[in-house]
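sorry to bug you again but im stuck and you know this stuff better than me. what follows is a protein written twice so to speak, once as letters and once as structure tokens for the fold. mainly i need to know what kind of three dimensional shape the backbone takes. anything you notice is useful, everything is just below:
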Amino acid sequence: MRAESTEAGVTLAHGPLALEIVLDPLAFSVRRGTRMLVSGGALWATAGSAHDQLIELTEGVIVHEQLGTPERLERAEVVLAAADELRLRGRTTTGRELRLDATVEHERVLLELSAEPEPLRLAVGWDRAHEEQLTGFGARHQAALDQSGRRMHLGADRAYTGPDCPPDMLDVGGIPMGDYLPVPWALSSAGYAVWLETAGTATEFDLREGIAASCRAAAGALRVHLLTDPTPAARLRRYCRLTGFPALLAEWGYGHWKSRDIYQHQDDVLEDFEGYERHRLPLDAVVIDSPWATQYNTWRFNPRQFPDAAGMVGGMRAAGVRTVVWVAPWMNLDSAYGQKPPDGESERSYGEPAPDYEPAAAAGHFVKEPSGEPFVQRWWMGTGSPVDFTSAAAECWWRELARPVLELGVEGIKADGAEGFYFPPDVRFADGRTGARAAWAYPELYRRSMQRALDEVHPGQGVLFARSGWSGTQAQGFTWGGDQASDFWSLRALVAASLTAAASGYSNWSHDVGGYIGRRLVERCPKELLIRWVQFGCFSPLFHAHGRFRQEAWTYDHETLDLYREYVLLHERLVPYVRAAAATAARSGLPIMRPLCLIDPSDRRGFSVADAYGYGPALWVAPVLEHGAGERVVALPRGEWIDFWTGERAYGGDEVTARAPLERIPVWVRSGSILVTYPAEHVAAGLGDADERERPLEATLWGEPPLGRSSARLADGTRVRWRKGRWSVEPRREVSFSER
């Protein structure tokens, strides 16, 4: 590392990476060797006021800010120029002092901006290069992968503008919806990535002209990391080193789960369980969503709703089916507003405070108001207080509440809620931070607590399934894509959101097959859409069937049931291949679902393809996203590919038109790849309890490896190789080999 100063400016460098700053007028640039990555860099502050509005019904957020004129730092002086650190300061035209601390490390530039007196916003910006594209930012429910040209308030950047949106709402940008998975991170096609290290509310990226990243100053100094590794995949890996790699989860987590919005009685759970068995559908877990507890959220089965919870959980477990229970990090004073079991006693008790509330409040286990009283907020299941996971005592109390139900045999937790938009800026956490500074740190704290609870009772086997996110949450459990309406617009937006989430490090991914909300809020998912969603679910890491309406396959027609069975079975067969990709993600950050920019960084289409994706190292999947479609145009990556269904060869690098009758989703296999699967008869009922190291395998070589050899490494350490016509497997196990 070295620092070089002149009268005009200063340069801080590490190897080929250099941060160059001109002092008057102030500007900065970042160069890697001879390539300019960032130019025209500027710093500014903006005064103003903010009053954001949470819409409880849809969990959408409307950001209200009254902003003054941006106060740009025009000139600065060097306070410190050491080999490993640079410090500048200067004043804006209004007299506000801005301070910049900068460091340059191996493939990373860190800028930290602060101001005195405190403005509303702190910002760093630079020019957008010609044709520069950006993706990431968590799950962006838009039709596009590239987010350039947009302005995003993370946590308030989702709206429904589909076919059932009223025209008057379209005029104001659509119906605000929950932006559950915002991440202050972006991959750029211009050779860098940017991460804002903040947990505050209303973090903003403005990509309409240049590139501007800002946060509210109440969140603390604006810390901007510029990562400069040579490929998008390498930059994502460096980001995961800073924030956490995705975990390799228990095998059953990558299977097929069934849920309903409400199981009104234990008999309804068993109806689904027995329905799967009766209709020969593979099943790995049943998710018991809300309500199931005596109140929100006591962690105790309601005996009127589940008269023999232990027998129900144990009976399903004996058949190889796990139980997952829903929870949110709230303890309620009043649950009458939320969903309730239909019996009269539950109706009465849900209108009362949970019995654990007062003792927990007295012990200081909840997030607090500035007065020191528990913070009380209305949420979609009533009115209550969120657990303060920054308090070791509160976290331990909550985890111990969960222990009895886990010891009963429940092996998974569906951890709902916990988004930062629920926390006003003035609430207080036990670690001394405010909501303004720590609101979006909450999802990761919640996930860590729930994963710890699972690990204590079911080490290596408990699976977490969570909704809310921010930087770091990709490292714990599965994430599902939030609530969708049952229409093709929502499915298309979900596919794009799945890919922006993947570009943000989320590998263990899922979604509600068929859509949670339903069609126009009043009808279940139509047949054609359900089948197309099932096909997408087949080629998603966790196939999760869930919704507000009856969307069980056997409640449609024979064709739907047969296709549902075919795709669930295919999903189960692909589990060893998918877990091998999950193990890759745990080592390198490269997710299971892969946008083209992570596969071939030199392909100019990489940041533009939002409707097809790599699935592990060998598959390319193109979901059908239009009503009535019998074919679709697909951007196929470069190289030789083989149609998964017909065996026909295709050469990528351009678009192809693929047949897509209702029963088929276009899928290709990269020529020369080995695809390792389970035999259909082995997983016909689900994954069950067999040790994955002892399961039988099928290994198929697709096409001819260009170098005369190919291999696949599974998550359990098994290596399958093909070399010049000969197969081998280590360690030895039952494998049937074939070539196509």
